[in-house]
Design a protein that fits this description.
Layout (H helix, E strand, L loop, with lengths): L10 H5 L3 H19 L2 H9 L2 H12 L7 H22 L4 H25 L2 H4 E3 L6 E3 L6 H22 L8 H19 L8 H17 L9 H25 L4 H8 L9 H12 L25 H6 L11 H34 L1 H17 L12 H10 L21 H7 L6 H7 L7 H10 L1
Antiparallel strand pairs: 1-2
Helix pairs in contact: 2-5, 4-15, 5-17, 6-8, 6-9, 8-9, 8-10, 8-16, 10-16, 13-15, 15-16, 16-17
Length: 460
């Protein structure tokens, strides 16, 4: 790939990928397995606490048996297993919340700043035009507007989460610069999230709006963390109960809430012709609705066109076929059937339940997990990231969706002083018998105190 040229998507890319990609990913997977082999006990505890995730991956591997393209399915299954391995590497760190924070911080600092530079100043890299030159598509370091939008959606949630954690300490020495960094990167993220004047990712915008609203609402529970899960469940139940009544009210005015949201984003109810793709993929899925066509065996390029025809989409756009169903749930159903979809829904339920538990036990971890998980789930209503080993949102879903064993959540005294004047005060507030992991789960401001973290870790 040349950095100043668009990415070339051809049949070879779709089925095999590039040789450099294969070598790099293989090396990373081997290194990940080696690291986990040195953390056997932590890995076992984490996997024992997430057996349903293992069951989902085992079933995905089993689906290779009935795939029409077993070689392609095997390669793609290996990639998604690689994403799980990388997630385990992050979560088996001594301080997993610190590891998650460091990972997201570095990724989004680089992606946001470099994407901004390419869009603003190196437009032959960061901007794509259609053949007419009328549509300006911002892609930054990504391959298309939707990929950039997904990164900016998650980046915006992350910087907003950091801002809520840093803001109370803004008057302390050096903290104002941290707050200004959060605000600056949040502003750049939102600027790129809105897209160009002609093209933007509506799904990512809606996902960010909903997730940011949830994150802001959770801040009102900061002093009620012991009852946070109960409060959230009650609010959600109330919304579900009044939902039908609200829907009927909107219908009396000849519209629905979904229609209003879709039109507000500049789209129509065909979801940019996604309904054609969904119809074709659902028709293909009817051949084996229980087990599906096999992991990664549907979107295989021209070699699968005859086996998996898409008449509705081809009638609209005969010269091009997409590489996903633009709906993660439909894609999952098509690949691993109702059995696999049910397993995925159970894993999602467990992840959301774990995030709600974190609101009570590790409030700031729950505040990060819940909005990001909701954003990923919303994004999969019009885009696909589930089961895709090379998709950043699938990796992020695994990082946030795996629940920590309860043994790694020894609670501290309910509330440490977030306005501590020095690292020594923070260290004195932590009992020596409690690990760095538990301390960081409870008090996120330690993430911005590297001196305290290093000295505390050395003491262990």
């Amino acid at each position: 790939m040349q950095w100043d040229k668009p990415v070339n998507f051809n049949a070879e890319n779709v089925t095999d990928g590039g040789p450099i990609d294969r070598v790099v990913m293989s090396i990373l997977i081997v290194l990940g397995v080696y690291i986990l082999s040195r953390r056997v006990e932590l890995t076992k505890r984490l996997l024992n606490n997430n057996k349903l995730v293992l069951l989902l991956f085992a079933y995905m591997g089993l689906s290779i048996v009935w795939s029409n393209f077993p070689a392609i399915s095997f390669v793609r299954y290996g990639r998604t297993v690689g994403a799980l391995i990388m997630a385990l590497v992050v979560l088996t760190e001594l301080a997993p919340l610190a590891a998650i924070h460091a990972l997201l911080f570095r990724i989004y600092v680089l992606h946001v700043t470099l994407s901004f530079l390419t869009i603003k100043y190196f437009r032959n890299i960061g901007v794509f035009y259609d053949w007419s030159g009328q549509y300006e598509d911002w892609i930054g370091l990504s391959t298309d507007k939707n990929s950039l939008g997904q990164v900016m959606m998650c980046s915006g949630i992350f910087w907003l989460w950091r801002l809520f954690g840093d803001w109370p300490n803004r008057k302390l020495r050096g903290k104002l610069r941290v707050v200004m960094l959060d605000l600056g990167l949040l502003a750049l993220t939102l600027w790129m999230l809105k897209g160009s004047k002609t093209v933007h990712s509506s799904t990512s915008i809606v996902g960010f709006a909903v997730s940011a609203t949830i994150l802001i609402g959770l801040q009102f529970l900061r002093g009620r963390s012991a009852r946070a899960k109960r409060i959230v469940v009650v609010v959600c139940t109330g919304l579900m109960l009044i939902g039908p009544s609200v829907y009927l009210v909107f219908q009396t005015f000849g519209t629905t809430p979904v229609t209003m949201v879709v039109k507000a984003t500049g789209r129509d109810m065909t979801f940019t012709d996604r309904n054609l793709i969904w119809t074709d993929v659902l028709n293909i899925s009817e051949r084996d609705p229980l087990f599906g066509v096999g992991i990664g065996a549907l979107w295989v390029g021209p070699i699968g066109y005859e086996l998996y025809p898409m008449p509705n989409w081809s009638a609209k756009t005969p010269q091009w076929r997409p590489e996903e169903a633009h709906n993660g749930y439909i894609d999952t159903y098509a690949q691993i059937g109702l059995v696999g979809l049910a397993l995925l829904f159970i894993v999602i339920w467990r992840a959301l339940s774990g995030a709600l538990d974190d609101l009570q036990m590790n409030f700031w971890l729950g505040c990060l997990r819940l909005p990001l998980l909701i954003g990923i789930l919303i994004n999969n209503m019009a885009e696909s990231s589930f089961l895709l080993g090379t998709h950043d949102l699938w990796f992020l879903f695994l990082v946030l969706g795996l629940n920590f064993p309860k043994g790694r959540r020894v609670p501290l005294p309910h509330k440490l002083e977030s306005s501590a004047q020095s690292t020594d005060e923070i260290e004195n507030a932590l009992a020596p018998a409690i690990t760095v992991s538990n301390a960081l789960h409870t008090e996120p401001s330690l993430l911005r105190e590297p001196g305290a973290l290093v000295r505390y870790g050395a003491a262990l």
